[in-house]
Amino acid sequence: MRPAILDPLFAAVTTLDGVGPKVAGLLQTLLVRPGQTLRVRDLLFHLPSGLIDRRRREEILSAGQGAIVTLTVRIDRHQPPGRAQSNAPYRVFAQDETGEIALTYFRAKAAWLENLLPVGEKMLVSGKVEWFNGRAQMVHPDFVAPLAEAENHSLVEPIYPLTAGLSGKVLRRAIAQALEKTPDMPEWIEPGVLKRQTFPGLKDGLARLHDPSDAIDLDPASPAFRRLAYDEFLANQLALTLSRQKMRGKSGRSLEGDGSLLARLKHALPFELTEAQVSAVGDILADMKSPERMLRLLQGDVGAGKTVVALMAMARAAEAGVQSVLLAPTEILARQHASGLSKLCDAAGITLEILTGRDTGKARDAKLGRIESGDTQIVVGTHALFQEGVDYHDLGLVVVDEQHRFGVHQRLQLSAKGKRPDLLVMTATPIPRTLVLAAFGDMDVSRLVGKPAGRKPIATVALPEERLLDIVKRIGSAVEGGDRVYWVCPLVEESEKSDLTAAEERAEVLRKFFGDQVGLVHGRMKGEEKDAAMAAFQAGTTRIIVATTVIEVGVDVPDASIIVIEHAERFGLSQLHQLRGRVGRGNKASSCVLLYRPPLGETASARLNIMRETEDGFRIAEEDLKLRGEGDLLGTQQSGMPFFRLARLEHHADLMEVARDDARLILATDPELKSARGEALRTLLYLFGKDEAVRLLRSG
Ligand code: ADP
Ligand code: MG
């Protein structure tokens, strides 16, 4: 159960003054993912993006147009709107030595203003100055206070990211109350770390950020900011380490083999494994042999050749007499894997079966029978693999392809089908090291660097969309020469329908030039239609395939050598990289055309430049991290919420490793978190919503 000390922070926000259902609704959209319960804590975790410093006093005459200034003025006179003009503003004139300014209020009550701004009083007013016909005015000053009292007010005010309808004032007031309600919590950070890093306590750290006294307090390098980042990392790493312990458990199983199937496979392969592949296979076979359970991430750029590594692992499992599953994120990919792998498996005498949601009736029953009896050694499929009614004879290895969106929870579920099967997760997104720790800190990592030998670089150009017809001509001659072309149309306005229209319209246009050599594949098509479209392209019946981003992950057509990406400016860097990886898979020279609609914004133009400069997925991922923060790389962009709420990886990456080491040390010495510090750490886990990790503790 959550420690009672956290109760005030887990109360509903409506318990705060000034927060009714309407404001709570706005806060909900601003602060948490859809469906998540909004708590007072979430206000604390909403950090300012900057501040307004009202300490510097200025004079009316020298205040620039649009500047936010603080003035010391004497209230001169009030000018209420005339009776007939109820929409006219109420003006209060005030002056300093240099001139006069009108403090302008709309729909304000006279009595309230008379009380707020008494004639003759010396006051501090702060807000945005506007000049019109040589007269200065300030509409609804942000801040007014009698000079004598100004000391009592904080003249440095944090600015928060807002959402439409929510005022900064209301938000600040709510956050101030959340701060007041923050209890003194027992310290969970190790004293040595605390001292070396000169971290303040959590409560002080929060107060420093929400009630800054200077811009420097909001600097990500400030001890207060770093303290919060560290707390978040520590909670994350503790949770991952706990899940690692749980997943590994006391006993896995040792999977060994005589190498006969591996040898036959190697013989059947049309190529030699690269050094990186050999070494990854080595890591994996060693893990499988060890009695500890394998939890390994195989990280490799698009086209790096992960599939064959997985196949080797599955062959070893077959040698050991257990079954494997290969889980693909989409139907198309599952089919492609199955067709690619079955040739090799046939040659090696390994039995392989595909199972997806599309299998029904008798055929499905027959498949299920073969899976249950153990006749099938490798099962390739989609999530259907883990549905009710699918029983394995003896599942020993689970391979998850192209799936970096799996949380701890899903991973636990996934392995429920077997007797603690070994787990290999393959990710094509070249996540930078720090992010690997954040998302997969509970796994060991093998990296496939570089690409198989013989690959030619992909020539990448960025062109404005006016050049579309030129491209069409160029494609014409390429297609005549036997090339295959991907033509990608982007998501328009995030609506599936217009997305579809764009692709259909483009296919129409291209058909005018190329007739029935043009195919179309999009997300709204039925499974069989998609397969048919892809199969026709693979076979060369169609030579140009217009696609929405359904082709993004993993599809392998080695003969495709040109990819055109329309509205490239709308895609993220990692997405562009993934898409480009569809070509350059064979030994042909390939090209990638990024068509954009000018004018290009700064970020979009930076993205396209990086794409032109490099094909190195890891470098692209690092650049992406710099350009847009961590969210996209971890696939959280849909929810709009970053992976970390407080920490900023681009600034705090160094702390992640400290947190990882600390988490491992803690759990090595106090695996149940029972010591005083252990108790404090439980509070930390709850504070960051890692309740699930605490449950892992309990179930042992
Ligand atoms: P990814 O890592 O993106 O999943 P794949 O496993 O689909 O990459 O491999 C991409 C292509 O490279 C496939 O056509 C595969 O047959 C080929 N390939 C894999 N390993 C090698 C190698 N060592 N030499 C040559 N081609 C290879
Ligand atoms: Mg792949």
TrEMBL record:
<dbReference type="InterPro" id="IPR045562">
    <property type="entry name" value="RecG_dom3_C"/>
</dbReference>
<dbReference type="GO" id="GO:0006310">
    <property type="term" value="P:DNA recombination"/>
</dbReference>
<keyword id="KW-0347">Helicase</keyword>
<keyword id="KW-0378">Hydrolase</keyword>
<dbReference type="Pfam" id="PF00271">
    <property type="entry name" value="Helicase_C"/>
</dbReference>
<dbReference type="GO" id="GO:0043138">
    <property type="term" value="F:3'-5' DNA helicase activity"/>
</dbReference>
<dbReference type="InterPro" id="IPR011545">
    <property type="entry name" value="DEAD/DEAH_box_helicase_dom"/>
</dbReference>
<dbReference type="InterPro" id="IPR012340">
    <property type="entry name" value="NA-bd_OB-fold"/>
</dbReference>
<comment type="similarity">
    <text>Belongs to the helicase family. RecG subfamily.</text>
</comment>
<keyword id="KW-0234">DNA repair</keyword>
<keyword id="KW-0227">DNA damage</keyword>
<dbReference type="Pfam" id="PF17191">
    <property type="entry name" value="RecG_wedge"/>
</dbReference>
<dbReference type="InterPro" id="IPR047112">
    <property type="entry name" value="RecG/Mfd"/>
</dbReference>
<dbReference type="Pfam" id="PF00270">
    <property type="entry name" value="DEAD"/>
</dbReference>
<keyword id="KW-0238">DNA-binding</keyword>
<dbReference type="GO" id="GO:0006281">
    <property type="term" value="P:DNA repair"/>
</dbReference>
<dbReference type="GO" id="GO:0016887">
    <property type="term" value="F:ATP hydrolysis activity"/>
</dbReference>
<comment type="function">
    <text>Plays a critical role in recombination and DNA repair. Helps process Holliday junction intermediates to mature products by catalyzing branch migration. Has replication fork regression activity, unwinds stalled or blocked replication forks to make a HJ that can be resolved. Has a DNA unwinding activity characteristic of a DNA helicase with 3'-5' polarity.</text>
</comment>
<dbReference type="GO" id="GO:0003677">
    <property type="term" value="F:DNA binding"/>
</dbReference>
<dbReference type="GO" id="GO:0005524">
    <property type="term" value="F:ATP binding"/>
</dbReference>
<keyword id="KW-0413">Isomerase</keyword>
<feature type="domain" description="Helicase C-terminal">
    <location>
        <begin position="471"/>
        <end position="626"/>
    </location>
</feature>
<protein>
    <recommendedName>
        <fullName>ATP-dependent DNA helicase RecG</fullName>
        <ecNumber>5.6.2.4</ecNumber>
    </recommendedName>
</protein>
<dbReference type="InterPro" id="IPR014001">
    <property type="entry name" value="Helicase_ATP-bd"/>
</dbReference>
<feature type="domain" description="Helicase ATP-binding">
    <location>
        <begin position="287"/>
        <end position="448"/>
    </location>
</feature>
<dbReference type="InterPro" id="IPR027417">
    <property type="entry name" value="P-loop_NTPase"/>
</dbReference>
<keyword id="KW-0547">Nucleotide-binding</keyword>
<dbReference type="InterPro" id="IPR001650">
    <property type="entry name" value="Helicase_C-like"/>
</dbReference>
<keyword id="KW-0233">DNA recombination</keyword>
<keyword id="KW-0067">ATP-binding</keyword>
<dbReference type="InterPro" id="IPR004609">
    <property type="entry name" value="ATP-dep_DNA_helicase_RecG"/>
</dbReference>
<dbReference type="InterPro" id="IPR033454">
    <property type="entry name" value="RecG_wedge"/>
</dbReference>
<dbReference type="Pfam" id="PF19833">
    <property type="entry name" value="RecG_dom3_C"/>
</dbReference>
